[in-house]
Amino acid sequence: MNFIDIMNEPVIVTLACTLLGLLVGSFLNVVIHRLPQMLEHEWIAQAADLLEEKGSADSAAKLRSTSGTERYNLVTPPSTCPHCGHRIRAWENIPVLSYLFLRARCSACQAPISIRYPIVEALSGVLSGYIGWRYGPTLAAGGALFLMWSLIALTVIDIGTQLLPDDITLPLTWLGLLVNLNGTFVPLQGAVIGAVAGYLALWTVYWMFKIATGKEGMGYGDFKLLAAIGAWLGWKMLPVVILLSSLVGAIVGIGLIAFARHGRNTPIPFGPYIAAAGLIALFWGETINRTYLQLF
């Protein structure tokens, strides 16, 4: 058995994807933490530029000072403890294991480390392993991995900030169309219609709700996320995604109001439910559609 045959073995592919998923999960934690802050810095810079154009140089300078002068992106500066500034060393950044070794505390100041970090890493690892086992070493596996990692990042960002950044949703839409050029998941025609229909479906609901109540029921990021899922999975999966996301969102929303004293006027991010439904549709959408059609 040569090297290529060994790498095609389902167990090897699954283990390799699991390890890759754990490593990417660690990077996703960086994206989740830093991307909203990067967007905030960008918004502050844009507002300061606008003030300068209107002749308010002093106000612009004060506004810029709030975001600092240090370069800030996904790479710079190095990761540090948010409580004491301790620089995270390599052995403290091993996915999942470092969290256990450190007993969920910073090695310098003993401040607690959020359980979000190992959850994101473990979830990314487990789902990556499943994708490797399901699809094998194929283009579909690579596409499914990228889609899943993006949905995890969007879910956690939306839970924490109620933002679905265009920096992720828009490239995800275009990449979905590119992946389907040769029909990797669906024919290109179905992918294009899926992207358009996904956006328009929630856009229509948004305006119907706003006209009826005068309130905004969801954000534009939700439209773009559903458009991205439509670009990857095609228009036939959109009913499944919309139904599942609405059902789970309604159950969770009612539960929060009833048991967690969550105010009815307090916004609940809808992106996580769309993302979860998108993953379900990716893995089992065809089975759900066949079962649904057989029933009705």
Could you please describe the fold and organization of this structure?
This protein is mainly α. Helices cover 70% and strands 0% of the residues. The chain has helices at residues 3-7, 10-53, 57-65, 97-101, 116-135, 139-161, 166-179, 188-213, 220-233, 238-259, 271-295. α6 packs antiparallel against α7 and α6 packs across α11 (271-295). The protein starts with a helix and ends with a helix.
- Low-pLDDT stretches are none
Biggest sheet, in brief?
none
Order of helices and strands: HHHHHHHHHHH
Amino-to-carboxy terminus distance: 49 Å
Tally of strands: 0
Helix content: 55-70%
The helix tally amounts to 11
Judging from the principal axes of the Cα atoms, what is the shape?
globular
Rg over CA atoms: 22 Å
Mean pLDDT: 88
Regarding quaternary structure, what we see is single chain
What class do helices, strands and sheet pairing give?
mainly alpha
Quote the beta fraction: under 5%
Structure in a nutshell:
The chain is mainly α. It has helices at residues 3-7, 10-53, 57-65, 97-101, 116-135, 139-161, 166-179, 188-213, 220-233, 238-259, 271-295.
Question: What are the SSEs and their pairings?
Answer:
Elements: H1 3-7, H2 10-53, H3 57-65, H4 97-101, H5 116-135, H6 139-161, H7 166-179, H8 188-213, H9 220-233, H10 238-259, H11 271-295
Helix pairs in contact: 2-3, 2-5, 2-6, 5-6, 6-7, 6-11, 7-8, 7-9, 8-9, 9-11, 10-11
Defining key terms:
single chain, 296 residues, mainly alpha
